[in-house]
Write a structure and sequence with these properties.
Elements (H helix, E strand, L loop, with lengths): L24 E7 L2 E8 L10 E7 L28 H5 L3 E6 L23 H16 L2 E11 L1 H12 L6 E5 L17 E5 L8 H12 L5 E5 L7 H5 L4 H7 L7
Parallel strand pairs: 3-4, 3-5, 5-6, 7-8
Antiparallel strand pairs: 1-2, 2-4
Amino acid sequence: MFRMLLAMTAFAVSPAVDVLAAEPEAKEFKAGDKVLLYRLLKPAEVEAGKKYPLVVMLHGAGERGKDNSKQLVWFWNAKNPSPMTHPQVVAAKAFVLVPQCPDGKQWVDVPWGKGSYKSPEVSEPLKLTLDLVDLLVKELPIDADRVSVIGMSMGGFGAFDAAQRRPDLFAAVVPICGAGDPSKAKEIAHIPVWAFHGTDDSVVPVSGSRDMVKALKDAGASPKITEYPKAGHNSWSPAFAEKEFWDWVFAQKRTPKQ
């Protein structure tokens, strides 16, 4: 249902950016008998004493597996502009984490077609991802106040859920054609949110994003939402092509919960 066809997104390329880092490293994170496969993009150059943003990217259901490669389909392409090779990501010297959810599992264990949901127990892949983020922040020159999560489709659910599980962790949340638990909106009202959705999405209803945005506003937050009229499920391509997308992500800093 979430199977995604590969399509490259067009970006305006800046001529003055740092050299592109090497292909994201293929790694695995172990916690007891549990294993999470992931790719980690590191800046080409890191200055001593400086810390850099971390962006967590959660893929959709079509990229699940055990090859530690398929999850990069929408995020990495060394020859064509894509989110991880975007000039602003390179210029920011951002670390980018792309974990792979195993076949048959989900970032959030809920039906996708119903939109909003009541939170179940945290899924194993998402818990491992959050534990890995904690480890990376400790071990790498990552600015703990600039950790953002971006998710598309199944990962859009994961982005909202990650923030709702760890409202102390993220500086920004970008759920693309996702959904969350509106009853927990108050828990993340202090975190900047920019949601994206196609109005004619037949896989994840646009109500999933609308319900969360309304709940956040009711909680006193000022979330952003961009809807693409008559667009279907692939709202990530226009979202990643938004001119202000990366400017907004990298401008956010973690704020304490009130």
